[in-house]
Fold:
Amino acid sequence: MHLQIVITTKLRRREGFIFSWTESADDETESGRSAIWLDASSILYYRYSVSRVPNINRDWIERLMVSANSAGGLFFSVEPPPVVPVLKSRS
Structure:
């Protein structure tokens, strides 16, 4: 869902970009890195294995957007733990 938000935002702005991710080795492929070019003419299909909409981690969205706006393009990274605001008690 987080990638969908970032990718959709970039494409709505008509901003093309590179999307990269690392791959772990399995029986059929070697480990490595893959990258694709995405732009407004791209056809994308998102499919999720569960119907529940996840909680959105705004910090992760921000990190992914910064990555997508960089010269290297969007690079998939592991979701950081959400930042929980600390409420100060009034003494």
Remarks:
- Residues 2-12 form the longest helix (11 residues).
- Residues 41 and 82 are 33 Å apart (CA to CA).
